[in-house]
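User: Here's a structure from my thesis project, written as structure tokens. My advisor, Dr. K., wants to see whether a designed sequence matches the one we expressed. Can you design one independently, without my sequence as a hint?
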């Protein structure tokens, strides 16, 4: 009698229920519930590919250890702390006037060059590449306090 009501081939309903949860319920929750079948199939396909990738990476020992084990990260250099004024409590600004506003371009401008020398020519700013080099030098040497014009351009990046 116990044989008739036992689990067939050693399987139990919890295995099929967990498979149902992974294959049906979780993808359903991730979908937007409108024509969800296609979304669920794509979700299952992506999860299957991720699982296969993980097995592949583990077999090639790509997921063992840490990425940072053999690296020497640069020392952390913090900027000097800002000095708070009496009227700055760090909260929201109560004033309703806006002193400035940023409006981004609606479409990219393709006629402007991307390189520093091209930009210098386009905007008629011959000193622009040197200004960028001095700026990069100043960012790399944060302790530098002298006038940037004294730094030879050959020493700049």
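Assistant: Designed independently from the structure alone:
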């Amino acid at each position: 009698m116990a044989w008739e009501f036992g689990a067939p081939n050693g399987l139990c309903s919890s295995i099929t229920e967990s498979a149902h949860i992974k294959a049906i319920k979780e993808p359903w929750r991730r979908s937007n519930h409108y024509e969800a079948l296609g979304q669920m199939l794509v979700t299952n396909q992506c999860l299957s590919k991720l699982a296969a990738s993980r097995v592949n990476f583990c077999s090639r020992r790509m997921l063992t250890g840490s990425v940072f084990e053999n690296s020497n990260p640069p020392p952390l250099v913090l900027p000097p702390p800002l000095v708070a004024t009496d009227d700055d409590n760090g909260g929201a600004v109560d004033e309703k006037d806006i002193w400035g506003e940023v409006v981004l371009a609606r479409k990219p401008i393709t006629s402007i060059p991307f390189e520093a020398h091209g930009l210098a020519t386009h905007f008629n700013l011959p000193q622009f590449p040197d200004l960028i080099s001095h700026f990069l030098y100043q960012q790399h040497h944060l302790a530098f306090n002298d006038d940037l014009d004294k730094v030879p351009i050959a020493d700049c990046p």
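When you compare it with your expressed construct, this may help: The mean pLDDT is 77.
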